[in-house]
Amino acid sequence: MRNDHYSSYLKKRILGNKGHLSNDSCAQALLQLVDTGVHNVILGHLSGENNTPELALRTSEQTALQQGIRLGEELFLDLAYRDKVGSVYTLEA
What we know:
Blueprint: H1 8-15, H2 23-35, E1 40-43, H3 53-66, E2 76-79
Parallel strand pairs: 1-2
């Protein structure tokens, strides 16, 4: 973790197996979702101090491309930003 102002308890929880996903773990989970038929993914709940939206997106994109997944065709990735309005989506039943 880049910042040391977190308490030891919080650091342990975040880094534990029930804490936050790393970008690499997220990308691997994304592959599993694609295998189930998921085509649209919005990355969110990104740390404002220990990650960047661009790094999270780049990691998922690179992992998908390495597995032969065609971005923009088989998989659409986007970001939910912490501090600005992103894309607007309409969900249909």
